Amino acid sequence: MSNTTFIEHQGTIVEINDGFLKVQVEVIPACGSCQARENCIMAEDGYRYIEIVHDGRPHQVGNVVTVVSRQSQSYKAVVWAYLLPFVCLVSALVIAHEIWKNELLAGLAAGVVLIGYYFVLYLFRDRLKREFTFTLKQEL
Known about the structure:
alpha+beta, five-stranded antiparallel beta sheet, 5 strands
């Protein structure tokens, strides 16, 4: 697998059930040398849990595995999580302000549109789970 088309993370299997593996991956921000790191919300350390369809190979809780995803998925995730909500928010703000000429109503309308956007994402969460998949790297 080429590093230019795949993203790999080390993780630990924490749960195995119903044909899925739950893998704990440590989040390490890339801003370790930044002096403003303590005050930055983007410098979030911690763990994330990823559900992976069981591939049939023997796995045990506690095994260290390599989780792999396509790099194109990360671009798609950025679009869905950041770009589209931003466009919806700004568009709703501008349109509502042009209609009502009131900043408070425009702000409320933009907030309602944003809530609606995330509600629709919630409704389609199962479809998004199928779209954003992770696999385990074949160890030699």
